[in-house]
Amino acid sequence: MESQHRAQAPRLRDLYDRQLRREARPDGPGCRVERVGDVVRQTGPAHAWNGVLWSGLDDTTAAGAIAGQIDHYRTAGLSFEWKLYGHDTPADLGDRLLAAGFTAEDPETLMAAEAAALPHDVPLPEGVELRAVTDEQGVRQVVEVHERAFGTDSTHIGRQLLDRLAADPDTVTAVVALAAGEPVSAARLELCPGTDFAGLWGGGTVESWRGRGLYRALVAHRARIAAERGHRYVQVDAADTSRPILHRLGFLTLSTTTPYTYGG
C-alpha cells in the first residue's frame, strides 16, 4: 500500500506542474501571467508576488532566459522571485541563478494530499475558537499572528489578502484562531478556479501555543473547505517544522521548492 501511495507522487506532480505552473492564472488584481518562450511568469503591482512560475530550459537556453527575466523585471522596476523546483531543468539551474545575482532563500518541500481523505474534525484546544477573516480587522489579526510566529514584517501579506478579499473573494479564504479574544494562530486557503488544487498558505502559530494541535486543526479546516468547493487536492510548500506533521496526515512529497530572489 505504501509503495502504491508513493507511486501516485509523479502523476500528481505532473498535474501540479501543468495546472498551477504552465497554465497558471493571475493570483491577484492587477496581475498578469504570460508565457515567454520556455518561461511562465507573473507581473503585477509592487506589493504583489512577481516572478517565474515555471521554466522548461536546457543548457542551451538557460542563460538567455535568465537574462531575459532580469531585464523584464528591471525594466518594470520590480524585484522578483524565480521559484525553482527540485525537478526543474537543467540540473544546475540554481547555480546559474546564483551566478546571475539571485539570492537563494530557505528550501521547502512541495506536498499534496486528497482533500476529502484528510481528517476534517481535528479538535481545537479548550477555549480556542476559529473565526473566518472577512474584513480589515481580521486581516490585521492574521498579520499580527504572522509577525509573532515568524518574526518577519508581514504587511505585504495583509495587503495582498485585503486585495483578494475585495476583488475576488471566491478565490481565497482565511481563518484566525482566537484564545480569549487574542489571535494565536492563522492560515489561509487559496482556491485555484478550474483546477484540481487549492493551496494551504501561511499556517502559523505563536510560540506559546505550539504543540497543542492548532496547525493540524487549521489544515483540517481548510481541507474541508477545499473539498466542499470542488478541489480534489490540497498542496503546501512545507517548512521543515511542518513536513512531519503533514506526512503523518497523509500528504505526499512531490518535490522541493526554493525561492531565488532578485532585487529588492
Quick summary:
This protein is α+β, with helices and mostly antiparallel strands. Helix content is 35%, strand content 30%.
Written description of the protein model:
It is a single chain. By secondary structure, this protein is α+β, with helices and mostly antiparallel strands. The protein has 2 domains: 2-110, no CATH class; 113-255, Aminopeptidase (3-Layer(aba) Sandwich). It has helices at residues 2-22, 62-76, 93-99, 136-150, 155-167, 214-228, 243-249, and strands at residues 32-36, 39-43, 51-55, 80-85, 103-104, 108-114, 128-133, 172-179, 182-191, 197-205, 233-238, 252-262. Strands 1, 2, 3, 4, 5, 6, 7, 8, 9, 10, 11 and 12 form a 12-stranded mixed sheet that branches. Helix 6 links the parallel strand 10 and strand 11 (233-238). Helix 4 packs antiparallel against helix 5 (155-167). The protein is globular. The mean pLDDT is 94.
Features of this protein?
alpha+beta; 12-stranded mixed β-sheet; globular; 35% helix; 264 residues; 7 helices; Aminopeptidase
Q: Give the total of beta strands.
A: 12
Mean pLDDT: 94
Give the oligomeric state of the chains in this entry, treating copies of one chain as homo and distinct chains as hetero. single chain
List the uncertain runs: none
N to C succession of SSEs = HEEEHEHEEEHHEEEHEHE
In the CATH hierarchy, the third-tier topology of the largest domain is known as Aminopeptidase
Helical region count? 7
Based on Cα principal axes, name the global outline. globular
Distance between the termini: 47 Å
CATH homologous superfamily of the largest domain? Gcn5-related N-acetyltransferase (GNAT)
Name the beta content range. 25-35%
Give the helix level as a range of percent.
Answer: 25-40%
What structural category do the secondary elements indicate?
A: alpha+beta
- The first-level CATH class of the largest domain is given as Alpha Beta
Largest sheet: 12 strands, mixed
* Cα-based radius of gyration, to the nearest Å: 18 Å
Integer tally of domains: 2
Q: Please name the CATH architecture of the largest domain.
A: 3-Layer(aba) Sandwich
